[in-house]
Automatic annotation (TrEMBL):
Organism field: Orycteropus afer afer
Quaternary data: Homotrimer.
Function according to Swiss-Prot or TrEMBL: Key enzyme of fatty acid beta-oxidation. Able to isomerize both 3-cis (3Z) and 3-trans (3E) double bonds into the 2-trans (2E) form in a range of enoyl-CoA species, with a preference for (3Z)-enoyl-CoAs over (3E)-enoyl-CoAs. The catalytic efficiency of this enzyme is not affected by the fatty acyl chain length.
Recorded catalytic activity of this chain's protein: (3Z)-octenoyl-CoA = (2E)-octenoyl-CoA; a (3E)-enoyl-CoA = a 4-saturated (2E)-enoyl-CoA; (3Z)-decenoyl-CoA = (2E)-decenoyl-CoA; (3Z)-dodecenoyl-CoA = (2E)-dodecenoyl-CoA
Encoding gene, per UniProt annotation: ECI1
Lineage: Eukaryota, Metazoa, Chordata, Craniata, Vertebrata
Places the protein is found: Mitochondrion matrix
Name of the molecule in the record: Enoyl-CoA delta isomerase 1, mitochondrial
């Protein structure tokens, strides 16, 4: 079975994500709040507020594996088709790690067809998020490197927990790889050209105070207030008539989106040929081994 079909089938019975009615939330959420589960993503929807909180739960580090990318994409697609939802907050189900970024095991020791499939899924999730008609907020309740940072940058605003361990940035060069043009463009659109150039060349991971200063996040708040702040900021975004906000968002992002749409196939081929190089495979394997050694 194709991965997308398999993941669709995994979505739990009774979930609104399968088209059925969601159960009432067992705890938390306002009156009428609904909860839906898939394996790697938990959705808590509050129709009265028009908001869904999408929680990553892909242990141990919420890495963006092919299955996680696919599942997240399907959840977002369902929410976009749900007329009761106008805004989405992305967060980690458990505080500590928002997302460790792209799953390195998807980029190591596989074949070119796998790399192409994986990169296509990364592109698709970015396109879905960056072009979303929803208001999107990131409640960043954990460390947020590379692909995790990219996810948050696709949102309309970012709230980061005030914990010096929770660094955020596109650190690809520190691994010996580099951020492709559309990662770079997404960051430029948030913090500007010069700050992006410095951040990308040095592979910087910013502390909360630094991230706030450079404009990578909009607010830094105590750890236990990240989600509530993200929800309260969401109400400001949802106070604007949807059509006006959406047209403005499209206008701001269209040129960036069009660049990837125009070069999508070439971008996949570039990724496959870069990641397949022996030297790059070696670098990634050493990086992964270092991460693993820590624990053994
Ligand atoms: C067209 C374009 C052409 C060319 C462009 C070229 C290249 C661009 C391509 C790729 C872009 C990639 C972007 C990315 O996202 S790369 C991923 C970058 N991520 C990181 O650097 C983070 C790495 N992880 C960490 O720093 C830490 O794990 C942590 C701070 C997130 C959490 O620390 P902990 O101490 O809590 O946990 P660990 O013990 O370190 O990890 C537990 C477990 O998880 C494994 N793991 C960690 N991160 C990843 C990951 N990203 N992918 C896969 N697996 C990961 C780690 O190895 C441990 O495994 P074991 O349990 O020991 O087996």
């Amino acid at each position: 079975m194709a991965l997308v079909a398999r993941v669709r089938a995994l979505l739990l019975p009774g979930s609104r994500l399968r088209g059925a009615t969601l159960g009432r939330a067992a705890n938390g959420g306002g009156a009428g709040a609904r909860r839906a589960l898939s394996h790697r993503v938990l959705v808590e929807a509050d129709p009265a507020a028009g908001v869904a909180v999408v929680k990553f739960r892909n242990p141990p580090v919420n890495s963006l594996s092919l299955e996680m990318l696919t599942e997240l994409g399907i959840c977002l697609e369902k929410l976009e088709n749900d007329k009761t939802v106008r805004g989405i907050v992305l967060t980690a189900d458990r505080p500590g790690i928002f997302s460790a970024g792209l799953d390195l095991t998807e980029m190591c020791g596989r074949n070119p067809a796998h790399y192409a499939e994986f990169w296509k899924a990364v592109q698709e999730l970015w396109l879905r998020l960056y072009q979303s008609n929803m208001a999107l907020g990131a409640a960043i309740n954990g460390t947020c490197p590379a692909g995790g940072c990219l996810l948050s940058l696709t949102c309309d605003y970012r709230i980061l927990a005030d914990n010096p361990k929770y660094t955020i940035g596109l650190n690809e060069t520190q691994l010996g790889i580099f951020a492709p043009f559309w990662f770079k463009d997404t960051m430029v659109n948030t913090i500007g050209h010069r700050a992006t150039e410095r951040a990308l060349q040095l592979g910087l991971l910013f502390t909360p105070a630094e991230a706030l200063q450079v404009g990578l996040v909009d607010q830094v708040v105590p750890e236990d207030q990240v989600q509530s702040t993200a929800l309260s900021v969401m109400s400001q975004w949802l106070a604007i008539p949807d059509h006006a906000r959406q047209l403005t968002k499209t206008m701001m992002r269209k040129a960036t989106v069009d660049q990837l749409l125009k070069h999508r196939e070439a971008d996949i081929q570039n990724f496959v040929s870069f990641i397949s190089r022996d030297s790059i495979q070696k670098v990634l394997q050493v990086y992964l081994q270092k991460l693993r050694k820590k624990n053994h």
